[in-house]
């Protein structure tokens, strides 16, 4: 989908630092995300995972280092920043759908307002995407009429509607009832297979094993380990990761 044969990484973070006041939340982060790669980020709460994601689409500024996205340093403001935001989709734990808009409108809003795509064309694409996430029959309902799993699948369709170069998922299944987790993970696994570049913060080890190319273990603002899912889950190299895994597995 996004793999156009370009060998340069889609995201290159070098020496990235971020503070909230006295709190040092990102400490010298060096990380690249290749095109078409699925990177899973795991680690204890408060370790900086959400902040890391939010720096990639510049929802958070950084106070040291550089982030290069698709060959260009992240823009600070203006039209270039708006363009960047539309190229990096984001799916949150809390769905964040517009409550007073229908499912279809939630998906067409970005394309018509930001991308200036004609309404009938945006509608057609929205229905294709809703079909893809298995929600087409719900298109004219409102978010509150859908289950959490369905709402999260709409959020994924909404992200896809902007034709992003990558999608950041920040604990997309953490707020869901257990029986709805898999339907969302299945959609994500489909995207991964189609070649979407994805950074996924999750504790879903089944997903990491099946879909991740790489696992990054983050704690206290640092990347503590970076390895293949197989290595990480069977033979983590640090005590920190061993301890974390013993608590969640
Ligand atoms: P994670 O997603 O791994 O749980 P976060 O990136 O959310 O971690 O948070 C990292 C640290 O930064 C935590 O100590 C958190 O309390 C703090 N933090 C996050 N956002 C803010 C903010 N807007 N202002 C101040 N501190 C924050
Ligand atoms: Mg978080």
Automatic annotation (TrEMBL):
Molecular functions per Gene Ontology: ATP binding; ATP hydrolysis activity; ATPase-coupled polar amino acid-transporter activity
InterPro entries recorded: AAA+_ATPase (IPR003593), ABC_ATPase_HisP-typ (IPR030679), ABC_transporter-like_ATP-bd (IPR003439), ABC_transporter-like_CS (IPR017871), MetN_ABC_transporter-like (IPR050086), P-loop_NTPase (IPR027417)
Pfam families: ABC_tran
Superkingdom: Bacteria
Catalysis performed (reactions): a polar amino acid(out) + ATP + H2O = a polar amino acid(in) + ADP + phosphate + H(+)
Record flagged with keyword Membrane: yes
Spans through the membrane: none
Protein name: ABC-type polar-amino-acid transporter
Organism: Nonomuraea soli
